[in-house]
Amino acid sequence: MEHVQVLIAGGGIGGLSAAIWCQRLGLSCLLVEKADRLGGQLLHIHNELWDFPPRVYSQGSELLDELLHHPAIHRLDPRLEEAVVAIDPHERIITTTKTSYRADYLIIATGVSPNHIPALDGCPCVLPTSFSTTAQAARVTGQEIAVVGGGDRALESAVNLSKYASHVHLLVRKNQLRARSQWKSRAEALPNLSIWWETEIAAYEARSGKIALMLQAGRPDSPSEITVDWILPRIGVHGNSDAFPMLGTFGDSYLQTDGFQRAGSPWIYALGDVCNGAPYASLSLAVGQAMKAVKHISLQIQQP
Ligand SMILES: Cc1cc2nc3c(=O)[nH]c(=O)nc-3n(C[C@H](O)[C@H](O)[C@H](O)COP(=O)(O)OP(=O)(O)OC[C@H]3O[C@@H](n4cnc5c(N)ncnc54)[C@H](O)[C@@H]3O)c2cc1C
To answer: Is 73 in the same domain as 146?
Structure first.
């Protein structure tokens, strides 16, 4: 069984920053990434990034290109298409989809995945969560669309799409929005945007090129069925922590960590979105946590 000093699970900006810090502090590391390429969510950001100082990036891929040119990332030999699926916290064994490793330390930087709507399983007209409502919005020109969710991203998407779509239905499960009030007032002012409160999708049916959505509505004025061309789910994300059921979680499967990013075990650390929760998900925080986790590991190793 291969022995590694630090095994990093996840090749988004958090995992890559951890790999840079491992090299900086003289630790050997191995990074395993579930996808066939590095980058994580950076691959799906089509908006401008202006809160990751000092540069403004036109989109995530521009920042990723620079990151991949970092000398430490050049030297990294990541194992792609290999996911961590289980760990033995006592033996320090990490099982992946391809093999097992024995590691002195594990850094979990597995990020988040979008929540999905089971009632839409198999529906051909569901837009991917990576769909950009700015760069790709022209695709829904003149069409009717349902956006599902009540947070900032759902409201922002609905408002953006209303510039192109003939009509936008915003389906909100609760009787109020989680989104900031400015989004609510912008949405309510739009003539081609309807908000259906206390409404959930119960089933769908394909009908002559369109999709009929059967709705479970809690209010008498809400429709029991609408017909749309596209559905865009924006119902939030959950931490990718399935492989670590023995570790403590909060909220939507986010890993609990202490002030040094330890996830309830002296050899297991977590950083980035998998442990931050949606309100704090950010590039800057993931990068800073990578420094803290790896520095703490290096100090543990130096101790007699
Ligand atoms: C549309 C959009 C816009 C955003 N805009 C901004 C912004 O303007 N400013 C900002 O600061 N932040 C923004 N963010 C948030 C920011 O992108 C994230 O906070 C950051 O990318 C999180 O990095 P991460 O490394 O923690 O996770 P991720 O980028 O999610 O990377 C996790 C990686 O782990 C891999 N993985 C998952 N499970 C496993 C496993 N079991 N084994 C191995 N690998 C695994 C995944 O494939 C993925 O590559 C945005 C996000 C999105 C989606």
So the answer is: no
Of ligand 1's atoms, which has the minimum distance to the CA of residue 46? 1
Average pLDDT over residues 271-288: 96
- Cα 159 to ligand 1 centroid, rounded to whole Å: 24
Pocket of ligand 1 contains residue 216 by CB under 6 Å: no
CATH code (residue 177): 3.50.50.60
pTM here is 0.91
Domain boundary among 183, 203, 233: 233
Q: How many domains does the chain fold into?
A: 2
Q: Which of the two residues, 54 and 183, has the higher pLDDT score? A: 54
User: What does each C-alpha distance from 45 to 57, 91, 157, 262, 284 come to in angstroms?
Assistant: 10, 38, 14, 28, 15
Nearest CA to ligand 1 atom 40: 83
User: From the alpha carbon of 283, which atom of ligand 1 is closest?
Assistant: 11
Domain of 228, in residue numbers: 118-233
Tell me the CB-side half-sphere exposure of residue 33, using CA atoms within 13 A.
20
